[in-house]
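Final report, closing paragraph on structural work. Over the funding period we assembled a curated collection of sequence-structure pairs, and we close with a single example.
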Amino acid sequence: MNVAAWSVGLVATFVPGPFVDEDTSTVVLVTSFAGAGMCMALIVATITGWWLRRRAAVSPNPPPKSETCSSLSV
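Its predicted structure, as stored:
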């Protein structure tokens, strides 16, 4: 699922490409690609999170409890 999420999210980084050229100012260039990167991250996080929540909801076995030092003390 992670590969599918990245495949969909990666499309967002290509969106600014056709709208920038050698005459585009540095501020506009950096802003447009930074915004595209944030959109990509949001898309990947949303798809992966949705899948993990759905998978956890249908899983018959809950994940094992954490065995940290604090939980081992008697």
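The chain is about 70% helix and 0% strand. The mean pLDDT is 85. We thank the funder for supporting this effort.
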